[in-house]
Amino acid sequence: MKIKIEEENKQILNAYRGILRSMKTKRTQADTKLIRKAFDVAVDARESIYGVEASGNNEMGVADADVIVSGGRPLGSEDNFASLYELAHLLGGTVGASRAAVDEGYQPVARQVGLTGTVVAPRLYIACGIDGAIQHLAGMRGSQVIVAINTNPDAPIFKIATYGCVMDLFELVPALTAQLQASPQPA
Question: Could you give all domains of the chain from N- to C-terminal order, each with its CATH number?
Answer without folding.
Answer: 7-187 (3.40.50.1220)
